[in-house]
Amino acid sequence: MKIAIIGFGQIGKTLAGKLSAAGHEIRVAASRDPGTIAAEAVQLGAQAFTATRVVEGVDVLILSTPLTAVTSLAATVASLPVSTVVIDTSNYYPFRDGAIAALDGGVPESVWVSEQLGRPVIKAWNAVLSYTLAHHGKPEGADDRLAVPVAGNAPAGKDLVSQLVNATGFDPVDAGQLSQSWRQQPGNPAYCTELSAPVLRAALAAADAAQAGSRRDAILANLISRRPPPTHAEIVATNRSMSAA
Questions:
Q1: How does DSSP assign 5-67, residue by residue?
Q2: How far apart are CA 64 and CA 144, in angstroms?
Q3: C-beta separation of 119 from 79 below 8 A
Q4: CATH number of 65-177
Q5: What CA–CA distance (Å, rounded) separates 201 from 149?
Q6: In terms of pTM, does the model score above 0.90?
Q7: How many Å apart are CA 71 and CA 44, to the nearest integer?
Q8: What is the residue extent of each domain of the chain?
Q9: What string of DSSP letters covers 119-155?
Q10: Phi, psi for residue 96 in degrees, rounded to 5
Q11: Is 210 exposed, middle or buried (0-12, 13-18, 19+ CB in 10 A)?
Q12: Contacts (Cβ under 8 Å, ≥6 apart) of 70
């Protein structure tokens, strides 16, 4: 498939490398001039484009940007045919994104993203740390393989995204409709806790919408205050302990 990735942070870069290695044609774009990321893109098996040109003729578009960039991408996304699957990997952090009233009022993040873009999206790869995505993928069928939740309304789109999740080294878990994607947002037990598929399903079921926002903020404050900064294992452990019911 021809896949475009807008956003060249750690998640975007890792997805570019993994999906290229799986045999897909990868295009990437960032807020910077394409020339500034071209060499790194080539190392990942991808090509760098502007955000406008990166989507030309693609089968899949992965948005790996902060929520603040979503509205500026609406016109670019609108140019895509309805058959193009759009994947949202974003998470809402008010300290970074500023307060978004709809999200603070309980609208699931990817429902809001879908509304801003004016088209359906699939939510995936948001609930996995970049280090986990880069280093903890395993072959399909491995006993200790970790899982990634996938939420969305279009069965065919979810099936395609699940295949891509599998190609990156993780078991895809159907997390329900997009309206239920709040269960994989920050502050919930399924978020960045490195779980197997059966345990992830239980974690999604245990999500608490009323507590998620305060837990998200408490976890972030805890991690930021650590000196020295927490290790990857400590981040996972903190997410597990502080997001639990």
A1: EE--SHHHHHHHHHHHHTT-EEEEE-SS-HHHHHHHHHHTTEEE--TTGGGTT-SEEEE-S-G
A2: 27
A3: no
A4: 3.40.50.720
A5: 8
A6: yes
A7: 28
A8: 65-177
A9: S--EEESTTS-HHHHHH----TT-TT--EEEEE-S-H
A10: -95, -45
A11: exposed
A12: 63, 90, 113, 116, 117
Tokens encoding 21: 């290695």
Token pair for 206: 């245990």
Query: Which pLDDT tens digits describe the chain residue by residue (245 residues)?
Result: 999 999 999 999 999 999 999 999 999 999 889 999 999 999 999 999 999 999 999 999 999 999 999 999 999 999 999 999 999 999 999 999 999 999 999 999 999 999 999 999 999 999 999 999 999 999 999 999 999 999 999 999 999 999 999 999 999 999 999 999 999 999 999 999 999 999 999 999 999 999 999 999 999 999 999 999 999 999 999 999 999 86
